[in-house]
Design a protein that fits this description.
three-stranded antiparallel sheet; alpha+beta; five-stranded antiparallel sheet; 10 helices
Amino acid sequence: MTQAPTPTADTVRRLARSLLKDSGKGDGSAAGPDVRPVAASAGPATWWVGTRHVLRLAPDREASVRRRRELRLRDLVRPHVPVALPSAVAHGEWAPGLLCSLDTRLAGGTAEEHRVSAVGEADLAGLLTGLREVPVRQAETLGVPRVPPRSLEALRRAAEEAAGRLAEADEFDPDRLNQLTPPAAVQLAAQPGTAVLVHHALTGGHLVVSADGRVRGVLGWDAAVVGDPAEDIAGLALAVGAPAAVRAATLAGYGARPCLRGLWLARCDSVRHLAEALTGRTAPPPALRTRLRHAWEPIMLERVTDLGRADGTP
């Protein structure tokens, strides 16, 4: 496989100028627009272009396939959700077989910078409701893959092993996982016939949040799948905290079972991911500890003990 070239500011500027010209949105400047990487953690693959656009460079052919699908998927999703999605201004290839797309920049910060308010939770509820309304067959026609729900029991066992490593590092009390018993893990299995379009990457960095706590937009649609809606509840628990995620899911019409399932997916994932990072040679990113704290925030829903009588809304 030929390795993709490393883009520089000069090559990105020339590429952005060409895409803007093709779209009719160029400013006529010979020097081209100002460009800069979005973040050091994003590597050279995502660049701000001026103040109104963002340029994304697919690093490989697999990512190119996902990005091409994303361009079409956003158009399918947009009428169903109350938050903004980026719009494609232009797209092309920045290297042989590798997609580049110039998108509109959504105004606002992220959920890592701004706390989501109560009204913002209603925005998240609208997002979850809208995703459930997107026609699954149309999404699959675009190439969105269908994935089976994860086994919560297998995840629980993996989290128990990871919790032991975290306990040795004085990072986590493994007894907290005792709340998820093997019978409860089985009882919280995903219900048949509940698959919906799932964003599958509702991280804090993908939620565009204004200073007043409203959720104004959602990025990162290339990871979308048809599958378990509890995965998006889990993503929100890691991004904005378990109580806010459950309140948003409840407003969206989800009952106790999917909310609890999403909560435990998030809790097990947060333990596993931090333990995996601790085995590396460098200190784990602070974001992983934040996600662990968010996932383990207490919620009132944990008082629900009779899941057989809980609302089984998908």
